Backbone:
């Protein structure tokens, strides 16, 4: 089992790196983490890491036809 | 709003005419309490005039920690219709079988009048209670009150959607398994997948107690759970005779409409060849006092249906022909795990599981989730059959007599 905090941190870095450039899905983050941490990192670890990122408010979900994980930002469509 | 300030809705007013229910009438009525409704009607009237929608959909609105249950919507004319500048929808997980006390309904409506437009849609096509129209700042307070009242948000986006079920054994004697319990167990089991969208696209589960399929699971669910029986239809001959005496034409209205013609009526006795019965429910629906599903009950599990969105509509295909009721939940959990594993790995973005199966082929899908093909999976034999003979088989073929 990988350290969930460490997985969450790496996920956050990836989301920040791609912010505004590419929409990442939960599955993309999970695959990237399993590649990075190796067999030690399970899908359950990734699930817990995503949950941690969401409940802390560091990341949010966005919906554009499908659900993606991104950084909190001002909604483009929202009126001033 | 004073009457002379109400929006002019010449086109929408047409939809109030006639004897049927009218959403325009309902929204106008709700407008007596909520100013949101006038702007909603005003914007809709404009859309009808211009033949153009004025909603912007999607975005990042939601409640903390959840990726589902809120559908963001904004007006693209916020200055003209400020009360619907934000008009988000909340999806609330309905109780299994849609059973409410009147107190519960009042609680829900009161919460929505405090935090939203007061307009509801009972229920959306997935089954949830739909709260229509609120602004971003009201989402968390509404969610707080909902959870305090024992409700939770349902699924939306690329998530497991709120499972739904027919009324099942609570009201219907034909139910072949406990749809309410199964639906509730599935909802509790997959909370994480409902609230934090993990999939390539949406995944719906619907539970129908018998092949009448009152929740249309065969057309609307990625995983359909349809109750059925394995033994013979239970038959009460005296009640059959009673139907005949009351004027039912059993030959014409029952036997001739049996899809496999496995029933016979000689004017005295109804005979059913149960081996040929495909459990369509027709005869049971026509003579409910005389015929009933058998006693060896369980469910058929089917995969892959969907309404048209990215691609066209699909109907479900049989995956497991029969699971006894007492093994249902364990079988479902294992099967769902294997399906999700495969879909996660190979599904394209916004590809439903039924579309993935079409792309890779059912044989490969079955192989991947470890199921053997079974004859019940074949909906109909292909109409252009061909057979490949191996050379040695052809050589061993005996010459037809007289050739
Ligand atoms: S699906 Fe069957 S069991 Fe469920 S309510 Fe309809 S008729 Fe009854
Ligand atoms: S359930 Fe349908 S297939 Fe079976 S005997 Fe009745 S009508 Fe025929």
Residues:
């Amino acid at each position: 089992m990988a350290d969930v905090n460490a997985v969450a941190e790496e996920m956050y870095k990836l989301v920040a790196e791609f912010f505004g450039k590419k929409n990442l899905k939960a599955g993309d983050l999970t695959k990237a983490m399993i590649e990075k941490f190796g067999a030690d990192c399970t899908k359950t670890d990734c699930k817990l890491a995503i949950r941690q990122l969401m409940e802390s408010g560091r990341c949010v979900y966005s919906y554009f036809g499908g659900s993606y994980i991104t950084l909190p930002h001002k909604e483009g469509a929202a009126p001033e | 709003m004073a009457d002379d300030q109400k929006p002019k809705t010449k086109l929408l007013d047409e939809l109030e005419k006639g004897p049927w229910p009218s959403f325009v009438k309902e929204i106008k009525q709700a407008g007596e309490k909520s100013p949101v409704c006038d702007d909603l009607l005003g914007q809709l009237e404009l859309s009808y005039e211009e033949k153009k929608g004025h909603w912007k959909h999607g975005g990042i609105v939601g409640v903390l920690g959840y990726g589902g249950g809120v559908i963001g919507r904004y007006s693209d004319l916020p200055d003209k219709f400020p009360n619907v500048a934000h008009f988000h929808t909340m999806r609330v997980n309905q109780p299994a079988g849609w059973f409410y006390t009147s107190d519960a309904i009042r609680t829900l409506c009161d919460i929505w009048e405090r935090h939203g437009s007061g307009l509801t849609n009972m229920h959306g096509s997935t089954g949830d209670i739909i709260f229509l129209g609120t602004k971003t700042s009201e989402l968390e307070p509404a969610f707080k009150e909902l959870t305090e009242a024992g409700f939770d948000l349902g699924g939306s986006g690329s998530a497991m959607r709120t499972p739904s079920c027919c009324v099942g054994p609570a009201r219907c004697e034909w139910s072949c398994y406990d749809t309410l319990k199964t639906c509730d167990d599935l909802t509790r089991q997959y909370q994480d997948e409902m609230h934090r969208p993990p999939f390539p696209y949406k995944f719906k589960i619907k539970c129908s107690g018998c092949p009448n399929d009152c929740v249309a699971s065969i057309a609307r669910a990625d995983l359909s759970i349809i109750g059925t029986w394995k033994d013979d239809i239970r038959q009460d001959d005296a009640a059959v005779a009673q139907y005949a005496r009351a004027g039912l034409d059993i030959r014409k209205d029952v036997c001739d409409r049996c899809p496999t013609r496995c029933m016979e009526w000689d004017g005295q006795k109804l005979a059913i060849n149960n081996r040929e019965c495909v459990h369509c429910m027709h005869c049971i629906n026509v003579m409910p006092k005389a015929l009933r599903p058998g006693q060896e009950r369980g469910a058929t599990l089917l995969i892959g249906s969907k309404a048209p969105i990215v691609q066209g509509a699909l109907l479900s295909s049989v995956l497991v022909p029969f699971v006894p009721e007492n093994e249902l939940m364990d079988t479902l959990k294992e099967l769902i795990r294997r399906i999700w594993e495969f879909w996660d790995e190979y599904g394209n973005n916004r590809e439903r599981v039924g579309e993935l199966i079409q792309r890779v082929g059912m044989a490969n899908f079955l192989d991947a989730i470890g199921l053997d093909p079974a004859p019940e999976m074949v909906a109909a034999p292909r109409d252009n059959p061909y057979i490949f003979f191996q050379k040695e088989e052809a050589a061993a073929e005996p010459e037809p007599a007289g050739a």
Notes: The CA atoms of residues 69 and 91 of chain B lie 5 Å apart. The interface with chain A takes residues 56, 58-62, 64-68, 71-72, 74-75, 78, 85-86, 136, 156-159, 192, 196-201, 344, 349-350 of chain B (CB under 8 Å).
